Amino acid sequence: MTEPVPILQMRGIDKQFPGVKALDGVDFRLFPGEVHALMGENGAGKSTLIKVLTGVYDIDAGAIELEGRPVAFSGPLAAQQAGISTVYQEVNLCANLSVAENIFIGREPRRFGRLQWRVMRREAERILASLDLDLDVSASLSAYSLAVQQMVAIARAVQVDAKVLILDEPTSSLDAGEVERLFGVMRRLKEQGIAILFVSHFLDQIYEISDRMTVLRNGTLVGEYLTRDLPQVELVGKMIGRELAALESLEDRRAAAEQADAAAPLVEADGLGRPGAIEPFSLTVREGEVLGLAGLLGSGRTEVARLLFGADHAGSGTLRVGGVPVRLRTPRAAVRHKLAYCSEDRRAEGIIPELTVRENLILALQAARGWTRPIARRKQDELVERYIKALDIRPADPDRPIANLSGGNQQKVLLARWLILQPRLLILDEPTRGIDVGAKAEIQRLVVELSDGGTAVLFISAELEEVLRLSHKIAVLRDRRMVAELDNDEQLTTDALTETIASGGRS
Amino acid sequence: MTTLTGRLRIGGQTIPRKYVPVLVTAGLFVAMFAAGSVRYEAFGTGQVILNVFVDNAFLLVVAVGMTFVILTGGIDLSVGSVVALSTMLAAVLLRDGWPVVAVIGLVLVVGAVLGLGMGAIVHYFEIQPFIVTLAGMFLARGLCYTIATDSIPITDPSFTAFAQATIPLGGELWITPSVVAGLVVVVVAAYVLHYTRLGRNVYAIGGSEQSALLMGLPVARTKIAVYTISGFCSALGGLLLSFYMLSGYGLHAVGMELDAIAAVVIGGTLLTGGSGYLLGTVLGVLVLGLIQTIISFEGTLSSWWTKIFIGALLFVFILLQRLISARRTGARST
Ligand SMILES: Nc1ncnc2c1ncn2[C@@H]1O[C@H](COP(=O)(O)OP(=O)(O)OP(=O)(O)O)[C@@H](O)[C@H]1O
Ligand SMILES: [Mg+2]
């Protein structure tokens, strides 16, 4: 008859950052035994809501109640002690420590104050096994990929006996199998009566796992809905405040495939490889062609990109750019040949948090010109304004430190940094990760525009639909080997592609 | 942030890459000792090594404190001055007839409180440790001269008796109580770093302070603690130095902060924090001490050569660290 009592209730939450009202009178409640999705565009205030809840930031106004008692946490530590376990957006672990420590640090098993390393390692193995992960728990975390690190962060959060589990975009770097495993764990926890707050930009995932959702837009509450009552189209409408036409309008790329075949080869890799990272592969990208790279996490997609860009040294093979053999010893050399690489790990390799949006945007262009030829301020303003608009970076203030932007907007700045260079080959490694539906469509449209304008694009994404939608040709990787190169014609479907990935091209 | 990952293969044995810097330092120490033994008569004895300990016990203790600070990614430039201040305090108080135990207690408390103050400023005002401890360095050095401008001899009988005591180890070998004190500090510190939450939090903060905070670790407490530990170690080092010198003087231990930092770096600890071992620091101090010994055995070389060698070594070791951390293969994959 009546609804159960919420375990967590937030009322009238306000949070003002210098120049932005990140949250404005937001109400939010969480019920035990439910998965509650927090939805909204990039910069809507999802992460901020999570951070004020867990005491990373103070609230300006409003009240938070946990199990009916008013609370105000002084920081993540206090929130943890009260039973709220959080995985923040972006992996927040210490890569220099071992896997086991990252799971346990702060609550290590002890006896008379002495850490019990053996118990810790054994427990860590057990917890990871429950997530189907088999890692060397005493190896340092930095030895593992971003996806594994993400899983370790999740393992850390589910290891404690929490009443509330918060996951801020935990799936952004996971592949389908890992997402399934995570969902398995979430369902188990849900049955134990734990309340789960989940953030993701993947609508399919939201509909698969969540029971209830709260939608935010520009820091204000749009509403709370039961997932089964709110069709996907309506949800998107509520998130962006208008109907989303962009996705539909993107015409199918396949027709253009043949035409691109005739263009001149831009980058040709012949037997390029690096022992231990990727087996020798051959690859041709033509002008104006979008080449998709498909494969599971760890299949070697990023390795291919890094070799083409000179970020790693090739152990074998040759590379030709515009028909001329080149040896790319450094990314700088690649940039001189007008190659650009937008990496997947924006936190470690991409943004420079202390600098402003403008400086982060201009960085690659300035580096390409050399430090002795500064870019005129007026030119800077013009470029910055154009790309902020093109990618709809919010807030549209070039002089804000990039660290203050929401995760998705930081991603857009990174992308813009490379677009400014007007490269001949643009390598995009998971460009739409962590980006909301509206912006995702914008980025896809941008790729199409670039390719129409003659730019070659190497498009790497875990989302096969996206790869299929955009690419003329698709190279499939598996176990660090290039196993197939397919023309994206009428016959190719997501299922067929999945099949190729799974079978390794033997059919 | 740089981290050392992966494993290195040596003769079928795989060694985690993070141990390599320490092993290199150990190898260097052995090589230097062997070379010295070949070149000079009377060098290849155990006592030569023990003398390195005897002559550098205070540096060892100071470097232990420095290791904590550097592991969090900080730096403490005040240690040399705090050492000098401690010798000064000890000498003056003993001259005024204070009991030895009270003097030792007070000196240690003063050192720890100075460290605590600097740590609190570093954390709460978010000021660079370099700046804060630079100020602390001038402050402590200045305080020495407000106490006295000249060297003050220490004549307290029990203090001098303790200072001149030796502990025979059988054979012709001996050490001093200071060495014992130094080694106790090393063992306790190694235990703290490896087997307590405080120690692991130190590494975590050195890895990423932001992550440590979001993982719910007590960042404020830990950061302040490391500077307090460093202050305490400096004060203890100062006491050991006053045993060694039997005087208090504002010009004692000039530049010792740099020796301590050099020892830590040569011992394989990354200046950016998060990676390193206390054993490395011990080896670093031994290497520095052995360089001095070799130069004194050489006889004709000026003592400035010590500095030149240390400088060269530092270069080599920092290059080595870069090489090891740059050669991480297959770390990323998607
Ligand atoms: N530390 C900060 N200082 C200033 N402004 C901030 C800070 N953190 C976030 N903001 C701003 O607050 C707003 C909400 O950001 P938030 O990170 O909560 O968005 P989000 O909904 O999590 O987006 P995303 O999906 O991109 O992660 C954004 O406009 C952002 O620029
Ligand atoms: Mg966010």
UniProtKB/TrEMBL annotation, chain B:
User: Which CDD domains does the entry link to?
Assistant: TM_PBP1_transp_AraH_like
Principal location: membrane
The UniProt keyword set, sorted, is:
Cell membrane, Membrane, Transmembrane, Transmembrane helix
Domain of life of the native organism: Bacteria
KW Transmembrane (keyword) present: yes
Instruction: Give the membrane topology, semicolon-separated if more than one.
Output: Multi-pass membrane protein
Q: Where in the cell is it found?
A: Cell membrane
Q: Which Pfam families match?
A: BPD_transp_2
What protein am I looking at?
Sugar ABC transporter permease
